[in-house]
Predict the structure.
Amino acid sequence: MTTNETVAPDPARAILNLIRPYEPAKAIEEVKREYGLTRVIKLASNENPLGPSPKAVEAIIPMMSQLHRYPDPSGYTLKGKLADRVGLSREWIVLGNGSTEIVEQVSLAFLNPGDEAITGKEMFFKYPISIRFMSAEPVLVPLVEHKLRLDDVLERVTPRTKVVFIANPNNPTGTMIPREELDDFMARIPPEIVVVLDEAYHEFLPADQDPDFLRYVREGRNVIILRTFSKIYGLAGLRVGYGIAPPHMIASLNQVREVFNTNSIAQHAAAAAMDDGGFIKKTLENNEIGKKYLAAGLEKLGIPPVPTCTNFFFLPLPVDCRTLFEQLLRRGVIVRPMARYDLDKAIRVTVGLPEENEEFLKAIAGVL
Ligand SMILES: Cc1ncc(COP(=O)(O)O)c(C=O)c1O
């Protein structure tokens, strides 16, 4: 019998057929193997090109002797530090196996089959996936000039709307909804609807651009802010993110989360990374230099990127992104084609180290 033959009907839920599975970025080793290359650079997942926070690495070494123990299910130390930083207490924080796990917690806790949840069409793909998992309906709002228009979101609110997911700044476009627009939205959205503001790239924003959405959390609104240690802190491999929300919502998220979702190494590393101010500063400096260099180089090539508030660029192109992606792979450069979002003529590229940015520019100039 071949593996395609079955002896019984497929037990999978029919809804799974409606879900486009997650397509991870190509891995460096995979590209080396497939294309017979010795050097490959990855600018595809918005990771920190400087590596992990050195303080985090140092902090986890003593933890190795404790791997036989289950992690602290309450995340006491990490939650305490996070709560102090935002001027709240632990009851306002939930931890996740990456912030994407909290996206799933939100859907599990607040969506029933048949409910609607609104998000941007060209917005982090994890939201519609988690909405569909619940047999709820994703309502996808097309972006206008690479930005989510909140008036368009409000127009789609119906009595069935339960949740709105907004990535701010947005992945994959790197654009940002400013504070005044968010404030106007919050004044008009029915208060029972859960608003998730995913701030995975928050730490890359200059202080004067912070929309200070925490105000709404403090007021007890049905609001959840998501943040992550995967980006600026350089800990994507450990999977740790957190949500900030009023205690009644955190209690619901805790009810649906797997008790030991955030492992002990991740908890320790994240807590230590929070004190690594020097590393954050270096990361921001590298990002600023890289952003300027890439924007100038791409403009010179006649393909200006969309101005970004993050550590990546959204790059509209005159050519099909799959072909370009493939040709860049041959030159040892991994980027992210945007076909997943039905955008055939765009890629997303992460700001790398200076030499990586240079290699990327050379490679794309060679292809075009
Ligand atoms: C908007 C947004 N949210 C969440 C994540 C994922 O974060 P984590 O690694 O914490 O799951 C990403 C990662 O690309 C992202 O772009």
